[in-house]
């Protein structure tokens, strides 16, 4: 008996944003990320019988996606030459010890750490978005993440502007509550 | 300015859609209203965090396209 069920019909609605966000923080190209997410769903469908229900559907899909991302990097790396690492230590007495300074971590270079933290924050945001009712999540995403104008969203979803602001208000309150524990 | 209006202006401010006069009125309201001060604080933080995270999501057209491909694959799979 498995605890988790699998249902590919719901995958896009439930997980595509999460997987996409996961991918884009690792490949930083929208088109490639989209392709990788699509590939992941198709691969997941093919190997559905291997899903044992031990992990959640999302975790299972992420594990497929991880392999897809690695494959992607393998492919582009085999085209290039192998990366070369060269460290030279100086022998002459004049520059002796200079390398020490080069090896010390640069306190101003925090990009790696920041990227990592941003990825975690991004995951947390998607988790919270997943808890919102679908309509609230849709409106919030369009307005806040994709940055559409109020008018465009209203036309697309067929709602009035005051409707939109009520939805935004509820979504923002729920999002702030959800993120408060770990991130505020 | 009543509280619900203050919250509405605060929401609009997060998307840079509030007018100057609205912002002035909001700030006057915030001087004496503790609940709205708290709301404004959390709301601003939320905006900041989302900006920081550089969170991304797929647009509707792309999702639709993905759905179509996946549905097709599901049909083929079940045959």
What does this 3D model show about the protein?
- Chain A: One of its GO terms (biological process) is DNA-templated transcription initiation.
- The complex is a heterodimer of chains A (184) and B (79).
- The mean pLDDT of chain A is 81.
- Chain A contains 8 helices and no strands.
- Chain A has 184 residues and is mainly α.
- Helix content of chain A is 69%, strand content 0%.
- Chain A has 2 domains: 8-79, Orthogonal Bundle (Rna Polymerase Sigma Factor, Chain: A), CATH 1.10.1740; 122-184, Winged helix-like DNA-binding domain superfamily/Winged helix DNA-binding domain (Arc Repressor Mutant, subunit A).
- Chain A is globular.
- The relative contact order of chain A is 0.09.
- The termini of chain B are far apart.
- Chain B has 4 helices and no strands.
- Chain B has one domain (3-78).
- Chain B has helices spanning 3-14, 20-32, 34-53, 60-78.
- By secondary structure, chain B is mainly alpha-helical.
- Chain B is rod-shaped, with a radius of gyration of 21 Å.
- Helices cover 81% and strands 0% of the residues of chain B.
- Chain A binds chain B through residues 8-9, 11-12, 16-17, 20-21, 24-25, 30, 34, 37-38, 41-42, 45-46, 48, 118, 121-122, 125-126, 141, 143-146, 150, 156, 165, 168-169, 172-173, 175-176, 179-180, 183-184, and chain B through 7-8, 11-12, 14-15, 17, 39, 42-43, 45-47, 49-50, 52-60, 62-63, 66-67, 69-71, 73-74, 77.
Task: Please provide the count of β strands of chain A.
Answer: 0
Secondary-structure content class of chain B: mainly alpha
Q: Give the DSSP E fraction of chain B (strand runs of 2 or more residues).
A: under 5%
Q: What's the helix count of chain B? A: 4
- The count of strands of chain B amounts to 0
**Looking at the structure, what is the overall shape of chain B?**
rod-shaped
Percent of residues of chain A in beta strands?
under 5%
Shape verdict of chain A: globular
Mean pLDDT of chain B: 89
Biggest sheet record of chain B: none
- Overall tally of domains of chain A: 2
CATH topology term of the largest domain in chain A: Rna Polymerase Sigma Factor, Chain: A
Largest sheet of chain A: none
Which consecutive residue ranges of chain B, at least 5 long each, have pLDDT under 50? none
H/E topology pattern of chain B: HHHH
- The amount of helix of chain B comes to over 70%
Per CATH, the architecture of the largest domain in chain A is Orthogonal Bundle
